[in-house]
Design a protein that fits this description.
The protein has 114 residues and is mainly α. It contains 1 helix and no strands.
Length: 114
């Protein structure tokens, strides 16, 4: 059986360790109390960032939709331009034929001396 002095020493060590642990628990509790408002603030900040990202996503989707609409409009305009170009070429060909015919008639008139 341990003697009284050894027991006293061991009890003092345990009491000292218990006091140290109590101090650490108090520090940890204070740190946890200080961390709570930071966590609440971080949660609020994350919520704000998420809301902002949703807004950006909606904006990008709207922009994409507009770009698709513009792309379709450009394709329609291109088709109209190709069609008008073909009509113009046909018109110029007809005009050229008419001018050639008029020129031929004028040449005949000039040759006859009229």
């Amino acid at each position: 059986m341990p003697d009284d002095e050894d027991l006293r020493t061991r009890v003092q060590v345990v009491e000292h360790e218990l006091a140290r642990l109590r101090d650490q628990v108090a520090i940890v509790a204070a740190d946890a109390g200080a961390a709570r408002p930071l966590a609440v603030g971080a949660d609020r900040d994350v919520s704000e960032v998420r809301a902002e990202l949703r807004g950006h996503t909606r904006t990008l989707n709207a922009l994409r939709e507009t770009q698709v609409e513009h792309g379709n409009a450009i394709l329609e305009l291109r088709a109209e331009t190709v069609e008008m170009r073909a009509e113009m070429r046909g018109g110029f060909a007809t005009l050229t034929t008419g001018v050639e015919h008029i020129t031929t008639l004028l040449d005949r008139v000039i040759e006859r001396g009229e």
